[in-house]
Design brief:
Blueprint lengths: L13 H4 L5 E11 L2 E10 L4 E10 L2 E9 L5 H4 L2 E4 L6 E6 L2 E6 L7 E4 L9 E10 L8 E10 L2 E7 L1 E2 L2 E2 L5 E6 L28
Antiparallel strand pairs: 1-2, 2-3, 3-4, 5-6, 6-7, 7-8, 9-10, 10-11, 11-14, 12-13
């Protein structure tokens, strides 16, 4: 299969996406707002001790690079141990650093950060992961859209499911799950998927 390099829409910028030897992808996310599809990629180059956020326009007309932003080394985003992308309600990149949850606006080149303090998390728990999982079918079925925050305490974990407003968690968690071990990722699956849903917008989170 023939592939072409990811470039800007004027076909420049190939050097930003084709010389990534030594880089590791830490996060791949997808945001759909106002009929605009945006792909997000966080890449780390350990040799250069740097992380970059790549943004791509992911429309039906093609996929093009729109921005490549170097994260400020002192920022929480540049030191994060967990990332997630807000799927449909805000232009947010979520990140966990030092046991705290932050969001940054990926539409602002400075990636301004704000700490988010979800309610209901115990004082002895440490936030270790975050993900936005959603199921938004076009057929009128029950939807699912929660910001899920994972914590650890001792040898156990807890998952908190929050409803959101503008990408921020609202009130107490709707659901709480507990278990032993460490959570690496969370996926929501609905077996009533209808292929027609793909024609009207993203139905569920396929990245993160």
């Amino acid at each position: 299969m023939q592939t072409t390099p990811l470039t800007y829409d004027d076909f420049t910028g190939e050097e930003l996406t084709q010389n990534l030897t030594g880089s590791e992808c830490l996060h791949c996310g997808y945001n759909y707002m106002s009929n605009t599809s945006t792909g997000l990629f966080v890449l780390e180059n350990k040799a250069e001790a740097s992380r970059h956020l790549y943004l791509a326009d992911c429309s039906f007309f093609g996929v093009y690079l729109t921005k490549c932003i170097r994260m400020a080394p002192e920022s929480h985003a540049a030191k994060a141990t967990s990332y997630s992308t807000c799927g449909q309600s805000a232009s947010y990149l979520y990140c966990v650093d030092g046991g705290k949850l932050y969001v940054c606006n990926f539409n602002d080149d400075t990636l301004p950060e704000v700490e988010i303090k979800p309610q209901g998390i115990g004082s002895g728990e440490t936030i270790t992961m975050v993900t936005n999982q959603y199921w938004m079918p076009s057929s009128g079925q029950t939807t699912f859209d929660y910001l899920i925050v994972g914590t650890t305490v001792g040898d156990g974990y807890k998952l908190y499911f929050y409803e959101t407003n503008g990408g921020a968690p609202q009130g107490q968690p709707v659901y709480t799950l507990t278990g032993k071990g460490k959570v690496k990722c969370v996926r929501f699956i609905n077996d009533s998927f209808n292929s027609f849903d793909w024609f009207v917008g993203p139905t569920f989170c396929i990245t993160d």
